[in-house]
Amino acid sequence: xxxxxxxxxxxxxxxxxxxxxxxxxxxxxxxxxxxxxxxxxxxxxxxxxxxxxxxxxxxxxxxxxxxxxxxxxxxxxxxxxxxxxxxxxxxxxxxxxxxxxxxxxxxxxxxxxxxxxxxxxxxxxxx
Length: 127
Ligand code: THU
What we know:
CATH class: Alpha Beta
CATH architecture: 3-Layer(aba) Sandwich
Shape: globular
Helix content: 25-40%
Structural class: alpha+beta
Number of helices: 4
Radius of gyration: 13 Å
Number of domains: 1
Largest sheet: 5 strands, mixed
Number of strands: 5
Order of helices and strands: HEEHEHEEH
Bound molecules: tetrahydrodeoxyuridine
């Protein structure tokens, strides 16, 4: 799967972000082991702590469709270069990491950057 395609989908879905409070749109696009893709955007709430990040929205949709392993996730915000997943989302991605790891894709000045989740979240939490 072409990572540019994942980023394009993340960009597209970021336009649907519900962000009346932060005005910070984010889109995410997940590629699963079954080669399916799922998108999500952030959506906020007047009770701020209930806000759902784009990454967790996309992952929740993938899980609801029966997916269990995430190969890659692209993250995009028009407000930020190199838009990384927050700490909570890193742990949620970690839960669905295959043994070969997850590629986390961002964009800087129109160029894709690829990070390994294990570099962004060393020693993720397992039970
Ligand atoms: N946000 C995400 O969607 N993903 C992240 O990884 C970091 C933050 C959203 C949450 C909130 O709606 C806005 O960005 C500002 O924090």
